[in-house]
Write a structure and sequence with these properties.
Layout (H helix, E strand, L loop, with lengths): L2 H4 L8 H7 L2 H13 L3 E5 L5 E4 L1 H7 L3 H4 L16 H10 L12 E4 L5 E13 L2 E10 L1 H25 L3 E6 L4 E4 L1 H7 L3 H4 L4 H5 L2 H15 L8 H8 L6 E6 L5 E12 L5 E10 L1 H15 L9 H18 L2 E9 L2 H8 L1 H18 L5 E6 L2 E9 L2 H16 L2 E3 L2 E3 L3 E8 L6 H16 L6 E3 L9 H13 L5 E10 L5 E12 L3 E3 L1 H11 L2 H23 L4 E5 L2 H5 L3 H12 L6 E6 H5 L2 H13 L3 E7 L16 E4 L1 H5 L5 H16 L3 E5 L4 H9 L4 E3 L12 H10 L9
Parallel strand pairs: 16-17, 19-21, 21-22, 22-23, 23-24, 24-25, 25-26
Antiparallel strand pairs: 1-2, 1-5, 3-4, 4-5, 6-7, 6-10, 8-9, 9-10, 11-13, 11-16, 12-13, 14-15, 18-19, 18-26, 19-20
Helix pairs in contact: 15-16, 16-17, 19-20, 21-23
Length: 735
């Protein structure tokens, strides 16, 4: 190594230190070693000045040897890594044992042209002539970084492909013109095309119905207030505006069959953020549409017979009345039930009774025209709606046909059954000009028949408007029942299916009249509602139930929830919130221990007002339960509009769930819906272990019914709770 190669221009203070370095005995050997090294080598003194470099260092940093010698090491370090001259000197000389500064961190060197190069540094201390030097070995790791990035990108691509190949959703990438760029296996399975078959084909022509595209274009034009062309833009205009959302669409498969899907379209962008295409993500909603359609059907039809229920009947009757007004024709309403049907249930069982109802429904339907309707209101009660009728004489012919059909022997389980109907009729406009009047008057005529020997037919007469002796007597007795202490509240336990413990109970009113004996709620609640007495009775039930719940909690030593039914009149009562607050304060019951049970139909009478009322109830800390869920509206959309804590599946679905696939499907759908909305689910009418086991396997939260206990008095309730709490959960029972 020559003198020029190691000369250090700079202050005279460095001369002594450099003299030791340049001693002939070690100079050539060190220079040769450094120059022969495959890596850039730089030696600095204790002050941080460069005293020795090799040609690899010149090549790496772009400086000549003369430009480097004598300068500080900071010259080769980007500003973001500099800590000042003193810090540099301390870093290199005060801690020379740090030999691998590049380990575990990203370091960069600064070239002469201002560019940065990723490097890895190894440091070695050298003692020469009583001076301390640090020899830095510097490796350019640009290629390593590039390979690492390529490897990382390959892993990312592999992961992306693995995700796309295994995700259950159809994913189709398209360019700005709508041509397919790629499709994943789920798209192939959904559509029946291979990815190769879809490649470069226009997505609209491939899987979309042009009529649906045109229809959606018209919808979007209205929604956005601007003309949307009926082409590919209808799929992408919203994502392009940052308004991506899920919508229902119809895909056309390769075999030209169609499949309903939920579709969302999002934009694909390049590194500059420019839109380069779109990603269409879709999934098959055939099953959910089927379940939703079934639930919607069940909202308007009877679960046993498949006939329209009260909701659909009233809607059709209202429509028939409007048409009859325009055509100056009549509408006939026939209310009928089966004489002594209860005897069939009691003697042969409910299963035979149900088959009998199905057979009767079928026979009535056979007697009607396509424009007519037969509905089942519940139990053995049927209603026939005959539209576009000339007069009663025409209706009489239909009535004779129905009576003849129903009265013929019905064979069930190799056993002949004979039943007869009691029928009451009303005619629009003679006997009423609105839906409810016609139904009420036909019902009144039917009860007249039942009270006068049954098995016949009677048209409504104005004299029937006078209250019957039974109804008048019941109304009079009802007015004095509260002050005479004839009412009692019984309680049916509600049990957690998770641990088998009683968590609450439903309050059920009972009326024990000294003359008429036990009068069931279905006989007097409607009468109380009609007369307005339900407000006093309802408040008494609420107050009694809350007070007894407090006493019960103290007795058993844990909180329980008291569920109390709410009538339409109570729900519409202006000071009802004040009544609830007053009862809670007086009884001392915590609001969280009170649940109010409200029917679906009650909420839907005035949805906006109902939602506001429920919100105010929730503000009190009281929970809301939808009672008899599935027998009214049962829409997947309406329930999200109200603040609801729990839904109670009606007993009609629980009864045959083990044998009726339709009931089971409804229960599964209801529980799934409740889970997604974080709403609790309780099933009422549980009578068998088989029903209970099925509900538990479907993650139903709670159950109520004769399997656990009938409704009992407050005095009996503690013993019932203790018995149920000691009982082992079903899952742990043998067999």
């Amino acid at each position: 190594m020559t003198k020029e190669s190691v000369s250090v221009p700079g202050p005279a203070s460095h001369t002594a230190a450099h003299a030791a370095l340049l001693a002939p005995s070690g100079e050539d050997r060190l220079g040769l070693v450094i120059e022969a090294a495959p890596n850039a080598m730089i030696m600095v003194d204790a002050s941080g000045h460069i005293v020795l470099v090799n040609s690899q260092a010149e090549k790496l940093f772009g400086y000549s040897r003369g430009e480097l010698l004598g300068s500080t090491i900071e010259k080769l370090v980007p500003k973001k890594f500099r800590g000042g001259h003193d810090a540099m000197r301390e870093g290199y000389s005060a801690h020379p044992e740090t030999r691998a500064m590049g380990a575990g961190r990203d370091l960069f060197g600064l070239r002469k042209d201002g560019s940065e190069v990723p490097i890895e540094i190894g440091l070695n201390p050298l003692h020469m002539g009583g001076e301390l030097f640090v020899l830095a070995s510097i490796i350019d790791i640009t290629e390593r970084k590039r390979m690492e990035e390529l490897s990382r990108m390959a892993e990312v691509e592999k992961l992306r492909k693995n995700i796309l190949d295994n995700v259950p959703y159809s994913m189709i990438a398209i360019d700005l013109n709508g041509n397919v760029l790629t499709a994943n296996p789920a798209a192939e399975r959904l559509l029946g095309y291979t990815a190769r078959e879809m490649l470069n084909r226009n997505v609209v022509e491939l899987i979309h119905d042009p009529h649906e595209i045109a229809h959606r274009a018209s919808e979007l034009s209205m929604e956005l207030g601007q003309k949307v062309p009926a082409d590919f833009n209808v799929l992408t205009i919203k994502p392009r505006m940052g308004l991506s959302e899920e919508r229902e669409w119809t895909y056309t498969r390769k075999d030209r069959t169609t499949v309903p899907v939920k579709l969302s379209v999002s934009t694909l962008t390049d590194h500059a953020g420019e839109i380069t295409g779109y990603l269409k993500v879709a999934y098959d909603i055939t099953e959910s549409k089927r379940v939703e359609a079934y639930i919607r059907h069940m909202a308007h039809h009877d679960g046993l017979t498949g006939l329209p229920n009260r909701t659909l009947l009233l809607d059709r009757l209202d429509m028939a009345i409007r048409q009859a007004r325009r055509s100056n024709r009549h509408v006939g309403v026939l209310m009928m039930d089966l004489d002594h049907f209860k005897r069939v249930n009691d003697s042969l069982g409910h299963q035979v009774g149900d088959q009998l109802l199905i057979a009767v429904a079928h026979r009535i339907r056979e007697c009607l025209r396509e424009v007519d309707t037969v509905a089942r209101l519940g139990g053995d009660e049927f209603v026939v709606l005959a539209t576009d009728v000339r007069d009663r004489a025409e209706m009489d012919g239909l009535i004779r046909k129905i009576v003849e059909k129903i009265s013929a022997p019905i064979l069930i389980n190799h056993q002949e059954l004979l039943v007869t109907p009691s029928i009451g009729g009303s005619l629009f406009p003679d006997d009423g000009t609105d839906v409810h009047t016609l139904i009420k008057n036909a019902d009144m005529a039917m009860y007249f028949v039942k009270g006068h020997g049954r098995s016949s037919m009677q048209w409504f007469l104005p004299t029937m408007l006078e209250a019957t002796e039974e109804k008048l007597a019941l109304t009079t007795a009802l007015r004095f029942a509260l002050e005479r202490n004839e009412f009692e509240v019984h309680y049916q336990p509600e049990v957690s299916l998770g641990n088998g413990r009683v968590i609450g109970m439903e309050a059920l009113i009972r009326w024990r009249h000294p003359r008429y004996g036990d009068i069931m709620p279905d006989r007097f609640i409607a009468l109380a509602e009609e007369t307005g007495l339900i407000l006093q009775i309802g408040e008494w039930v609420l107050e009694t139930a809350c007070e007894q719940c407090v006493r019960l909690q103290k007795k058993i030593g844990r909180p329980l929830v008291m569920a109390v039914n709410v009538s339409p009149r109570q729900f519409q009562q202006k000071d009802w919130l004040d009544v609830i607050a007053r009862v809670l304060k007086k009884s001392g019951l915590q609001p969280s221990c009170l649940a109010l049970e409200i029917t679906e139909g009650l909420l839907m009478r005035s949805p906006e007002e109902s939602a506001e009322m429920l919100a105010q109830i929730r503000n009190l800390g009281v929970s809301i339960v939808i009672d008899d869920f599935g027998t009214g509206y049962s829409s997947l959309s309406y329930i999200t509009r109200f603040p609801i804590d729990k839904i109670k599946i009606d007993r009609s679905f629980v009864r045959d769930l083990a044998t009726d696939a339709a009931d089971a499907a409804i229960i599964i759908a209801v529980i799934a819906m409740a889970r997604s909305l974080q709403i609790g689910v309780i099933a009422e009418g549980v009578e068998t272990e088989e029903q209970l086991s099925y509900l538990r396997s479907r993650d139903c939260d709670e159950a109520q019914g004769f399997y656990y206990s009938k409704a009992v008095s407050a005095a009996e309730l503690p013993a019932v709770i203790e018995r149920l709490d000691r009982r082992k959960p079903l899952a742990s029972q043998p067999g």
